[in-house]
Design brief:
The protein is α/β, with parallel strands linked by helices. The chain is about 30% helix and about 15% strand. β9, α9 and β10 form a beta-alpha-beta unit. It is globular and about 60 Å long.
């Protein structure tokens, strides 16, 4: 969700060279981005020594500016010690002193979408733009090998290679227990979707979602197929692009789906769509399901009601009703 801000920055300072620092699993999401000149990819977890060596290398590059989109501990240390002439970041409590220019993460009138927050950091460089000027998400096209891999999986599953099969991509991942809709709910949704003639469901997720995959497949109808743990992030995007519908929780794959024209049905639990809804300024079809509970948004440390009702209160029948208009 930083890619619209990066595009705005390149437009405002076209003669500058931009280096993007990213964790290794997500390098593929920014490779080939026309606004990025260089990528530094680091492991998701680093030792203290590795972090210090990274900071030393950044200092040796003599950057004019460091812009901290993340605000986490590691990003803050890199920004503080990176030796740049200008440091830009969010006005987060306890971290304001780290930056030369501090931008509020939020607004006086309520929640602000994460994409807008990132774009607001670009204003520190003198950029002027309105909400309508913030572009869509910018993700790379698949490599030929990635396209062929997706086509091969679809062929093996007998799903064809286009949205004409009414293919539904269902993200069975959770990330944590606060966003876990549950294998039972997912199975009931699959059974309902499979009753629509010509509709076939394909699961996606990471290796961590394998247990949920196994539980669902034990009782799922025969027209379901799983690609959990078998696709990289751009291959997931290519699969969604070929589908008739994407369904899932507030998650990384949901945002990847937002970069395609494919309709989205998303269910939100502890997080707010006002912050994290699919960013689709062109108005592609999107349906969001949520429960208006006073405990939302939630810091996701302890459930205030001990039953995760914000998410589990959204029934498979409700999700199915939101999906059906895109499949009949």
């Amino acid at each position: 969700m930083t890619t619209p801000a990066v595009a705005l920055l390149k437009t405002h300072v076209p003669s500058s060279s931009f280096t993007y620092l990213v964790e290794e699993p997500y390098r593929r999401l920014v490779e080939g981005n026309p606004a990025i000149d260089r990528i530094i990819a680091v492991p998701a977890k680093q030792s203290r020594g590795d972090l210090l060596r990274l900071i030393r290398g950044i200092r040796e590059d003599h950057f004019d500016a460091l812009l901290d989109f993340h605000g986490g501990p590691r990003a803050s240390w890199i920004t503080l010690l990176g030796g740049a002439k200008l440091k830009v970041g969010y006005a987060i409590r306890g971290k304001r002193c780290l930056y030369d220019i501090r931008v509020p993460r939020g607004g006086p009138d309520g929640p602000v979408h994460s994409v807008v927050n990132h774009a607001n950091l670009v204003r520190a460089f003198g950029a002027e733009f309105g909400p309508a000027d913030i572009p869509p998400l910018i993700l790379p096209e698949p490599l030929p090998a990635e396209t062929a891999r997706v086509a091969e999986f679809l062929g093996v599953a007998g799903l064809g290679t286009s949205g004409s099969d009414r293919l539904v991509v269902l993200h069975v991942g959770a990330g944590n227990r606060f966003r876990d809709w549950g294998a039972g709910h997912l199975l009931e949704l699959v059974k309902l979707l499979s009753k629509i003639p010509g509709t076939k469901v394909t699961f996606i997720g990471s290796d961590a979602d394998k247990p949920a995959e196994v539980r669902i497949l034990e009782d799922a109808p025969g027209r379901t197929f799983s690609l959990v743990g078998r696709l990289n992030l751009i291959e997931i995007r290519e699969l969604v692009r070929r589908a008739a519908l994407f369904v899932g929780p507030d998650s990384g794959p949901m945002h990847i789906a937002a970069s395609t024209p494919t309709p989205i049905v998303a269910y939100f639990g502890p997080t707010l769509p006002a912050h994290f809804a699919p960013w689709r300024p062109r108005g592609e079809p999107t349906v969001i399901l949520e429960k208006p509970l006073p405990c939302r948004p939630c810091p996701q440390r302890r459930c205030a009601t001990d039953d995760f009702r914000c998410l589990l209160g959204i029934s498979p029948e409700e999700v199915y009703a939101a999906c059906r208009p895109f499949l009949v």
